Amino acid sequence: MADRPVDLRSDTVTRPTAGMRAAMAAAEVGDDVYGEDPTVAALEAEVAALFGHEAALFAPTGSMANQIALQLVVPPGDELLCDADAHVVTYEIGAAAAYGGISSRTWPAVGAELDPDVVAAMVRPDGYFAVPTRAIAVEQTHNRGGGGVVPVDTLRALRRVADDNGLALHCDGARIWHAHVADRVPLATYGRLFDTLSVCLSKGLGAPVGSLVVGSAEKITRARFLRKRMGGGMRQVGVLAAAGRYALTHHVQRLAADHARAARLAEAVAPFGVLAGPVRTNIVPLDLGKHPTDATALAAAARAEGVLISVLGPRTARLVTHLDVDDADVDRAAAALTRVLRG
Fold first, then answer.
1. Are residues 156 and 302 in the same domain?
2. Distance between CA 75 and CA 208 in Å, rounded?
3. Contact 226, 196 (CB under 8 A)
4. Residues 190, 155: Cα–Cα separation, whole Å
């Protein structure tokens, strides 16, 4: 529809497709707090198998899934290492400290281009009144890093750092499906590198809600308790799990189309010197530091042209392609952004 805004704010704004709605309507359900929802159980088993782990747990949000996983690997008062722009310390409102009593320390924000040697040098062992490091968290793909993909060799090096120091390694894999498609790394390869993962069904895959914690059977038994404590126990939630199962079947490989559309948007804005970095997946990061327009003004002008974008800071913004953005939408958005940036 020509009068519908092209919504490039996030890949969380998608609506269920007709096929997904049909799957939801037909879902067999039960009380999941009692462990009796067969559709949830099937989803959990499917995701665990995809990542080569023993078990998984369906949670209502990615933030809850992350925080459950962190509590599994970091005792209260001990330390998590992650980058300064990581979702777990940027967009989860201090939940690691508030709910888990977890202390966090960060390395300088570099998105997906992290240096395992820098991380290794930060590890604090048990000692006299020192806060001991217990886990490292990595984001794949990296949201504020422009959808960058952490190379699998870097992850292997981080795994060695973790093993050498007796640490756990957690993956905030909200968009790990994009990494899988972009770098053609099997999901099980990623899974073997991490003690815990959180993976999201509503970012990119088009499900209306839901994430999963992935790990060992022992960890997921504990995770179920933590989920209930945090208010995440759900009843006949198979209607939502069915959307996730549909997404895994139908919406993973199509992410390549989102990547191609993001690349087209990047090509359109690149001549104006506002592209913040390479575009590997479905996120186009914008840096307006050398442009006369600031991010808020750009977003307002783009909205007037029928394009919605996210403002991340005074001079930073982003464009995100997704299931509800087609080739015609990209053409409209590219033309509108060109007009706005040209002034």
1. no
2. 32
3. no
4. 8
Beta bridge partner(s), residue 317: 286, 311
Residue 59, beta-bridge partner list = 211
Give the pTM. Answer: 0.95
**Which pair of structure tokens corresponds to residue 311?**
């403002």
Which residue type sits at 135?
A: A
* Residue 183 pLDDT greater than 60, yes or no: yes
Residues across the chain = 343
Q: Name beta bridge partners: 56.
A: 214
Dihedral-angle region of residue 101 (phi above 0 means left; psi in -120 to 50 means alpha; beta otherwise): left
How does pLDDT run across 219-268, given as a tens digit for each residue? Answer: 999 999 999 999 999 999 999 999 999 999 999 999 999 999 999 999 99
CB distance 49 to 245 below 8 Å: no
- Digit-coded pLDDT (tens) for 260-315: 999 999 999 999 999 999 999 999 999 999 999 999 999 999 999 999 999 999 99
Residue 106 lies inside a defined structural domain of this protein: yes
Task: Report the number of distinct structural domains present in the chain.
Answer: 2
Rounded Cα distance between 220 and 213, Å, is: 8
At which of 186, 219, 250 does a domain end?
A: 250
- Please, which contacts does 301-307 make with residues 24 or more away whose CB atoms are closer than 8 Å? 301/340, 302/336, 302/337, 302/340, 303/5, 305/336, 305/337, 305/339, 305/340, 306/3, 306/5, 306/6, 306/332, 306/336, 307/5, 307/6, 307/8, 307/332, 307/333, 307/336, 307/337
CATH code: domain of residue 328: 3.90.1150.10
- Residue 141, preceding peptide bond in cis (omega within 30° of 0): yes
Angle, nearest 10°, between helix axes 238-250 and 38-50? Answer: 40
